[in-house]
């Protein structure tokens, strides 16, 4: 898995294989590009949580700021 780079959309990063190629420097195995997300468990649908570790603006403050900026244009 450490040799793969995942391209989540076939329309993005179309030429990533031009830089992600060759072999892994530690084990000599080939590097490769893989379309789609890696296999794994389904992504859980978690409830929204307020910012805890890096507080910033609340959604209400962002909406108020956007409204004020729109009026000034």
TrEMBL record:
InterPro entries: Ferritin-like, Ferritin-like_SF. It comes from the Bacteria. Gene3D superfamilies: 1.20.1260.10. SUPFAM superfamilies: Ferritin-like. This is Manganese catalase. It comes from Paenibacillus polymyxa (Bacillus polymyxa).
